[in-house]
Design goal:
This is Cohesin subunit SA. One of its GO terms (biological process) is sister chromatid cohesion. Belongs to the SCC3 family. There is one protein chain. By secondary structure, this protein is mainly alpha-helical. Helices cover about 60% and strands about 0% of the residues. It has 45 helices and two strands. The longest helix is centred in the N-terminal third of the chain and has 40 residues. It starts with a helix and ends in a 42-residue tail after the last helix.
Amino acid sequence: INGHHQENGMENMMLFEVVKVGRSAMQSVVDEWIESYKHDRDVALLDLINFFIQCSGCKGVVTGEMFRNMQNSEIIRRMTEEFDEDSGDYPLTIAGPQWKKFKTSFCEFISVLVRQCQYSIIYDEYMMDTVISLLTGLSDSQVRAFRHTSTLAAMKLMTALVNVALNLSINMDNTQRQYEAERNKMVAKRANDRLELLLQKRKELQENQDEIENMMNAIFKGVFVHRYRDSIAEIRAICIEEIGVWMKLYSDAFLNDSYLKYVGWTMHDKQGEVRLKCLTALQGLYHNRELNARLELFTSRFKDRIVSMTLDKEYDVAVQAIKLLTLVLNSTDEVLTPEDCESVYHLVYSAHRPVAVAAGEFLYKKLFSQREPEEEGAPKRRGRQSPNANLIKTTVFFFLESELHEHAAYLVDSLWECGAELLKDWECMISLLLDDPMPGEEALTDRQETALIEIMLCTVRQAAECHPPVGRGTGKRVMTAKEKKTQLDDRTRITELFAVALPPLLAKYAVDAEKVTNLLQLPQYFDLEIYTTGRLEKHLEALLRQIKEIVEKHTDTEVLESCSKTYHALCNEEFTIFNRVDIARSQLLDELVDKFSRLLEDFLQEGEDADEDDAYQVLSTLKRITAFHNAHDLSGWDLFTSNFKLLNTGIENGDMPEQIVIHSLQCTHYVILWQLAKLSEGSSRKDDMVNLRKQMRAFCMMCQRYLTNVNTAVKEQAFTILCDLLLIFSHQMVSGGREHLEPLVYSPEDSLQSELLSFILNHVFIDQDDDTNSTDGQQDDEAVKIEALHKRRNLLAAYCKLIIYCVVEMRTGADIFKQYMRYYNDYGDIIKETMSKTRQIDKIQCAKTLILSLQQLFNEMLSELGHGFDRSSSAFCGIKELARRFSLTFGLDQVKTRDAIAMLHKDGIEFAFKEPSPQGEGGPPLNLAFLDILSEFSSKLMRQDKRTVHMYLERFMTFQMALQREDCWLPLISYRNSLQAGGDDDTMSVMSGYSSRGSSVRSKKVKPPADRACGGFLVPEESSSGDVWQQSIQTPVMLPSPHLTSTAMRDPKRGRDDSYMGVYTPQHHQTPMDYNRRGTGLMEEDEEPIVEDVMMSSEGRMDDLNEGMDFDTMDIDLPPSKNRRERSELKPDYFDPASIMDESVNF
């Protein structure tokens, strides 16, 4: 027996290795096994059994003696004992290239095995019985590897048997037709021998089909009905995937409510991958319109669940749910209600592109699939008479009704893949805007025209740029040659159409700022060469005239900036139209600057006598110049002198209109930036450098003076520009080979730093109700509040950049960091990122800044509450909580933060003992309670550093202090205890009262490698050379990952919340479902329970979960062929809770 065992082991190893490698033709492997089976079926079956055992990752081998003398349950128990669970991996889960194709090869082997045996061996009542019995036993094992592998094998075996049953059904129908044809012949021509042969063949096929039914029933009842609710999501997913295949392959037998109910129940599964398999299984069914009639009851029962899954928290599930609803929509329009459709419509604005594209396809099918039929032979209708005209109007109506007007780009992107032909019918859109409506046709309203222009612009941008809008991009994608050709063709067509149509469009809507702003963006996507090659110069002249007129008519900033960008796009030196556009631009700017100089001179001369009309003329001209200066170099006109004179007058008189000052500051800022840009190129003279240095410093002083202006908007503008200039002209500007710019470097004086910080504290860290920047009684308007918060966040970010780039001293960040908790919701992310960046620059200085912020808060609390404050007060607990948050930002790597943490403790100890006791000799120091706050950082000290810090603490303590036990000395006692906490508990957070939410984490310690260098850090100046911080360190190592354990060894309550995540619901909040509740109501929501503990007794489990319910797990009964006797009819409604399962079935 031993010899046979070894020989068999080698053969089995070869079978397993062949499937593992997956290179050999599987049919030849199976044919060799069949030959072996014909020679000695016991030996061959033993090979197959060991193959399944080995595919599960088990090292044990079933011997011939075990196979002959032991029951399957005993064999499985023996294999379980020999299973090596140390690694936690088995072939289906092992990563790596050699295992990549194992699952595919494994499934193919089972499929080919059944296919090759379908005519003889599977009916011998031995091979299939043995395999099914083994797989059924393994599928109920406590070991996940056995359960997973055997369930996959059983489901694939079932799928292969379904194929066999389908072939048998076809053969039986063919045989029956042949029999009927022969029997209907005249008696003289009838061949009785043939009739007998056909009858015999039909009988054999009938017997074979009954055998297959029995096998499938055994697998379905023995494996599927248990494992489709296994505790492991992968196993549940396998079951649902395969039942979908059965229903699709052999719909006559499986596509009925008795099997569909399992898919419907499992749509409530807590794991996304299982819900995904349900949807993909259903897609395969709804795709075939011939099956729709059989799905009517299922659709009506589970439609609401599918609709709710469009909001699933797993994006992949949401996408497939929308695609399934699109298939349902294709099959019938009556199933989905308007409310159902609307819940999908709004997803076209989703930030997740696959969800949006799927929703776009649904929307397109629903709203745009019905086109007007065109008469054959009739000329193709164009413009507003084209078939697309009504569809484009429908798009506009939908966009307006959705009330998300700023998201037209998202709507266009969602519809692009399915409706690009419609969206690129720009000729029709232009016609709808320019041509008069047909008789009886209703004209577009002003609001609809605005929406159509916005949609038209978005379609042009999508066609020209070929990438999704901001916020929906999936990373850079390399375009194919076909896509590049389409892009070029579209740009050519865009230019040819809009070069002609844009001037009349601008002329028609010249007074409408919103329409003009969108229309003026179109030339950015032109192929400018076509102006020359297409002989469209006259249209270019018309466009330039219209732009000039718009500049003269409008003072709206957005319109003027659009005009400026259009000139910038057209002024491209690569194209021949450059000279023509440049001349037009220069003429316009000459007029503007001359007008501004003349108006400004008169305005300043009039002084207090200037009226509102004069101020408006100056402001409107200044707005136009500022908008153009943003994109164009106006260095040829001396704008600095006139603007500086205007700003200086505003400071002296104090009555300059707010908007004039704001735009003058902005314009002067652009002047300096354009001069710097020219100097950076290295082509300017030394005089230009000196001139820029003078102008920049004079302008910075001017902005500093405006920080004290009475008008908030002016102060904010001056602050923002000042921060930008300080950052641009900091020491960073000489990097990258620009050393010649070093004379321009400007460092702010202490007074300026102080004023900037004061501005932040007074204008950013304020309560929402204190923000008086909102006007016209709109304090309660949510949009205004959000806009004000956004503005304050920008101000804070501008100042934090000065800290990060070392423009201002890092210690000024203490006033920012101390606001972390109080303003966490508004600015928490900005402050946290600032702390992170400053730590990267200088860990020690960052730590000193953090402790300084805590000291400032402590001093503020003392001044407010006095020295006898209560340590349980909200103010003290708030500081302590802030210290805890600061501590968490240092991370887990104690080696990296060693020096910084030590310096933090040093500064904290010195602060605590800095001030003497207000109670006189023998009393606690004034700031002693600060040690309680400092103890929050003790967990970040390494063990040997704790001893050193403790020694440093004792330098400040007297002998009497060590003996004190009164409440006022508790901070010292607590801090000393936190430093003396030894052993392995280095990461214990010492917290009490308000912040007692920490937990200890124990880590194993290992000695570092001998060649690893560990730098020490400086000690206080008073310490001697012998009192240096110890050099040896011990770093925590990660705990070993847990090994694989069987489900029987787990605590059934443990991990229930961690294993699953609640299904996302339309209400945007998760409600975890209790799958262990008793009583009625569970199945009312179609939630078939997913049983976590596979070792629960079958009857008890069913009683617990389905009390008071009838469950019907039906036998697999293949549909009758024409020659078979009628079978019992199915129950009419298998989703009625009273008829879901049969009590007679033992799970």
